[in-house]
Amino acid sequence: MEPMEVSVTDEEYMMTKAKSFLETDCYRCRSWLLTAKSMFPNNFGIHFECYEIEKNLRCVQRAARCFSCLLEDFPNEAILWKEIENFTPILCMDTSCLSEEQTFFREMFSALPLSIQQKLLSVCAERSEDTMEHCRLVLLLLNRFPQSSTELALKLMDTMITAEKHNQCPNVINCYRKILVCDLGPLLVSTNTLNQKNLYKMLTKTTEFYITYAMGGHSIIQNLPDTENYIKTPWDDLFASCERIGKKLSWELRSVLSQSDKRKAWKKVSSFAKKFVIASNNSELSKQLVFCGMILFVRHVFDYNKSLQIENGSEYLLVKAIKGPKVQINKPPLKQAVLSIATKLNESLIGITDDSSEVLDHFKMAFNYWELLTNKEPMCTDYWKLSAQIKVDTFIGQFLNDIEFYQGKYKNLFKAVPVHDSIRKSLSLVTLYYCTQEFKKCTEHIFEVIDQIKSISLYGSVSTEIANPPEEREMYYIQIAKLPVLQYCVKIMVQILYNQLSNYPSTSDILIGHLLVLSQMVWPEGKAIAEDMYNHISKLPLFTYPQFSTYITNIDIIEQFMAMFMENDKCVLNIFPCVASLLSPRISTRGAGKEVKDEFRSGLRRQVRLCSEPVDETMLLFFKNERESLMKTATLMQKSLTF
Amino acid sequence: MDYNEVKVNLRKFGFPLSTENALNQIQTIINGETSRKQHLNEDLAMDLISEFIFCETNEEGKSTKPMSRIRYLELLVMICEYFNKTKIKPDNDNCCGDTALNAIFMTLFPQFGAPPQRTNMLVSLVSLAISTYSNLILQSAGVQMQQLGCSSKYSSQLADGLVKKFFTFISTNSSSLHLLPQNAPLFTANLMTSLSELYFNTKTTDSNITIKEPPRIVLETIVRWINSDPCLCFTAHYTDLQRALPSGAIPMAATLPFLGLFRWCFFAPLCVKNSNDLELYSELHCALIESVMQGWKVYSEQNPRVSRPYTLSVHSVIPQQLKDLIEETIKLNDPVSMHAVEIVVERLTQSIHAAIISDTIFGNKQDLVNQLESLPKNEVLKALIKRIQV
To answer: Which pTM was predicted?
Structure first.
């Protein structure tokens, strides 16, 4: 027993001695520690204490040296492994938010010999019970030691996919998928670990992840630290990842993903399809085409959706072009008219109410890809398979609706109208009911639009596209702004009234008056309407429209009335209530005195003063006051069509 | 070849062409095939060197005025460039340089037979080489120092010259100093050995015992060097000098810097008053025992066939002067002095223990015990003596 006790005292004496110099002279302390360690090479306590002293002195190099000696000489000490468990998680943390001690551990780990680093990482990864931690440790291992086993990497890929399923992640934007796609993916692809089947698996997972992230408007990925819980450039990352995987699959077409000129990319894709895929019916080539094509397609839809939303908060809506006014509206066709040319985009069919060409360009490009992918075998089958897997349809709803609109499948679109009340909803219904020739409902919704129009903050500008669309135009993107929307509603009303006027000339006074009012909103194109109305009026013995003074502010129309009054021989213009009361019961201007004429003149003169009034205010007032008569006309018109 | 013809030809050129041509000429003479007239060749080389390179003699072999400072500088740069541009053999390590260049260096800066100003030239050249990372010059210098002995007059003059003309003018943070152990480890190790002999070495001149301390920059630099590589101090031991020498030359035994540097640590507590410097000696001591214990262990694990070096020798580890100094200090009998003695004994014990542990101590067990027993008694010392005797 005695010598044992003595030796313990020796050790204690030396350690006490060493520690007594810790504050005053750390090198003297270290000299003692070195001596103690060399005197008692088998005493774990002394060696571990030396390590702790270096750790507390924050001396990275010395601590690392002590630590690797400990690991070499005492590999089975529980205390040592406890320490290892303390600091391995730190290796996975973000460097920017480490405490001083954590930073020290990180630096010490880097100062360890590489073989020890590798051994530590793999042992800790194996021991780790937390999936995320396990995966981060393996990632660290793979990153630091690319030569370490590929089996480990493949196993990790499976672990991540299982973890995603196992943890019942509500969608693909979860931490496991992010790590699989963003961290493990590039590593696995670069090291030639994946066979073709796994490459396709990774490609699908990657595409699904990025597309869902970008199209779904996701920002934060749950359960990840702040610095890595978002993706800054999902599209660029998607293109880069797919190009990387495409390279491993020896895809010739992969370069289109990094092609900055979208038109050139499209040319390449379409010629690839024509030259190889359609001709050969080769499934590998088709897969290649469908992957690249689909990614570019969705990207164009993304751009399209973005271009529909203008920066100032306003947006575009695809609506039917309103021709006319001299368009004879026939009874509604029994079957839906579908545009026969739908497979090839006819650009002149679509217009836009202002100068922005982006929307049209994006629609055209997206349409091209859509048509290529869904209309021909073998791509068609592959596309639908992939699209179902990645659930692409959930992200391209707007585009699909607009395609149906383009194809004239209006009836299908009623269910796609936004659920919540909004000007967009009302305007969609206006154009859809117009297309399906349900004019009563159409007019009802025009009033809904009018009711909401005040809430639009954007004023916009009147558009010749709406006032007088080119002959071949079938539809255009209307900017949801006060003036264009109002103009559009006016245009439909004009067509309804005009049609009614030509069918039932007997109820003409009010129709003529209303048409004159409405024509002001589409001036100067409205001039033709006005002239037609003058013509109608000239054929009437008496024209009664007491609302004239309220709604007519257009100087041309007022002048014309003055002229008509001056040269009037047949028609009496009963347009000023005050003047009307002076008229004799037998309606004739010939009997009217000078007084009447003067009154009329001064009435028109008063009217001239109004010509600077904003026409849109007048229109809103008109719609508000004349709602009943307009509705009545629309209902009559509807009936006349049905019977 | 007619020797005179060589000289006459060289005289046709002025500086710098004459020097450049002379260097090339010397290279062919020294590294040319050995002929029967070897000694004549060497004479020619010496002549060429003093006339065309260092311009110490004129055509008639008589001494000339010293060269201008500009010329001096130009000459240094030229020699530096000459060493730098020479092709390094692919199997060259960074220890002993290029054999051919070593031979030229030895001829340019011989131990004997050169005028004293050439020593200054050597100091300037080595200083320039350190600053410009001209490693081949440094490696040649390292070989030469070892060949002539690190405590020889030649090496001491070089070391002393470097301290006075280089170290004192350079900052501690100079990266050329930090990188020296990597670029020229043999030179660094031998320089440390030479430096270690310059200080705390009692020289009884005129019966006055003077103990010189190293300048702080030297101390700091050495500590940094040893800490940067625990094997550095062993470099001279494991360098195969034979490869670096011209054929026929016999390599000299290596001396390691341990003994001298440990002596610094033993003397310092008794002689040095500046507490900042004392801290540095504590660090130096720690670095040294770590190097003794770790350095050789690390190196011998990788190179098992190299013989064991000696870091300490029983007979010189406690010099008489140290014993005397300890005795004198004890006589003062004040706490400060006693504390200093305690540190000295502590360091002695620790360093001897380190040498024992690494099995690099030279001498007889009983002699060591006798030496230790002459020191003032102390717990650790007792434990050590017990351990030695077991």
So the answer is: 0.66
